[in-house]
């Protein structure tokens, strides 16, 4: 029980009581106390003598014994694993790759990149992203892949280590992606490559992808130069087998052949004209935006097949 004796008439009992109550409540749950004012006195009266804050009585009972053993702090820390976008080194690598792409193209890799960029890219529903290590190893090594890239090869986000590989990883997956760009080329769009062979589910082929060299400034022999530390790949669609196109988030569409694509482009262009000329819709109308987006997607498929 906390008692407050007000000895000076000029002191505000309400203010003092409120202060003490707030201070006590910061250390204890509010529902652990009940306010008990004395009878026949106003809180603001000069004759008010006591303010009591009494702890609620707790029911006594036997505590249930838990059969589960609690983990020690050391055991918990040992079992804790950082997510790919939480590691400082990975965050720096991803941020550099995104900055490199925007520097080469003048636009961000995806419109989703706001706020925490490494986290936004990991959770992207628009683009799959991979960084291949340029270390001269015989087999390609993945330095980073986001959740959409894992989905491309049939993996879940928590199966991230299978793509990175290592001696202690069971059933690793090796991507067939070049770890270097030959010649003077440092950026390429419209890239198409079969990255994984799957006998049962069908081969995985990235379509209309971007790839670019990730360079890091370095001081060598007193001169500033750039060293390539990896090759970045980004794609929004991939073919699975010969009949299906996939997009992040489980979206699937039929894979059309070149002659079928040309017919589909003609029909889609006619639909766009109808929406604008006959229906009177503007360029920013959602129906027009979606129709134009599909038209561009079909044209990109034709360009990818031609390449």
**How much of the polypeptide forms β-strand, as a percent range?**
15-25%
Pick out the low-confidence regions.
1-11, 30-59, 76-80
**What's the helical proportion of residues?**
25-40%
Number of β-strand runs: 11
Q: Report the sheet with the most strands, covering strand number, pairing sense and barrel closure.
A: 8 strands, antiparallel
Let me know the average pLDDT.
Answer: 77
Cα(first) to Cα(last) distance is 83 Å
Structural class: alpha+beta
Enumerate how many helices there are, as a single number: 8
Radius of gyration: 32 Å
Q: Encode the helix/strand succession as letters.
A: EHEEHHHEEHHEEEEEEHH
Morphology call: globular
Write structural notes for this entry.
It is a single chain. The chain is 32% helix and 25% strand. By secondary structure, the chain is of the alpha+beta class. The strands form two sheets. Strands 4, 5, 6, 7, 8, 9, 10 and 11 form an eight-stranded antiparallel beta sheet that branches. It has a three-stranded antiparallel beta sheet with strand order 1-3-2, covered by helices on one side. Helix 7 (258-278) packs antiparallel against helix 8 (286-306). The longest helix is centred in the C-terminal third of the chain and has 21 residues, at 258-278. It is globular.
Please name the defining characteristics of this protein.
single chain, 307 residues, alpha+beta, 8-stranded antiparallel beta sheet, 3-stranded antiparallel beta sheet, 32% helix, 25% strand
Task: Map the helices and strands.
Blueprint: E1 2-5, H1 13-25, E2 33-36, E3 50-55, H2 73-79, H3 88-105, H4 117-122, E4 128-133, E5 142-145, H5 147-152, H6 160-164, E6 187-196, E7 204-220, E8 223-235, E9 237-240, E10 244-247, E11 251-254, H7 258-278, H8 286-306
Antiparallel strand pairs: 1-3, 2-3, 4-5, 4-8, 6-7, 7-8, 7-9, 9-10, 10-11
Helix pairs in contact: 7-8
């Amino acid at each position: 029980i906390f008692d407050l004796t007000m000895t000076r008439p000029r002191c505000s009992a309400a203010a003092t009581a409120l202060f003490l109550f707030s201070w006590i409540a910061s250390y204890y749950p509010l529902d652990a106390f009940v306010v008990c004012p004395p009878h026949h006195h106003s809180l603001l009266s000069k004759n008010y003598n006591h303010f009591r804050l009494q702890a609620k009585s707790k029911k006594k009972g036997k505590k249930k014994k838990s059969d589960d053993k609690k983990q020690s702090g050391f055991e918990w820390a040992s079992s804790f694993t950082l997510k790919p976008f939480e590691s400082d080194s990975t965050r720096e690598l991803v941020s550099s790759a995104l900055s490199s792409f925007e520097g080469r193209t003048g636009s961000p890799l995806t419109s989703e990149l706001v706020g925490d960029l490494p986290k936004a890219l990991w959770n992207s529903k628009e683009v799959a992203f991979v960084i291949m290590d340029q270390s001269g190893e015989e087999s390609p090594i993945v330095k980073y892949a986001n959740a959409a890239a894992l989905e491309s090869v049939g993996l879940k986000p928590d199966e991230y280590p299978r793509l990175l590989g290592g001696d202690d990883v069971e059933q690793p997956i090796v991507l067939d992606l070049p770890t270097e760009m030959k010649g003077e080329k440092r950026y390429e769009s419209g890239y198409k490559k079969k990255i994984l062979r799957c006998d049962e589910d069908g081969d995985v082929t990235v379509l209309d992808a971007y790839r670019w060299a990730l360079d890091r400034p370095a001081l060598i022999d007193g001169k500033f130069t750039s060293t390539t530390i990896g090759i970045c790949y980004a794609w929004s669609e991939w073919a699975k087998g010969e009949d299906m196109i996939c997009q992040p988030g489980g979206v699937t569409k039929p894979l059309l052949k070149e002659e079928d694509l040309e017919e589909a482009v003609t029909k889609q262009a006619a639909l766009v004209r109808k929406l604008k000329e006959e229906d009177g819709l503007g360029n920013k109308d959602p129906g027009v935006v979606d129709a134009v987006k599909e038209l561009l997607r079909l044209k990109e498929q034709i360009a990818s097949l031609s390449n």
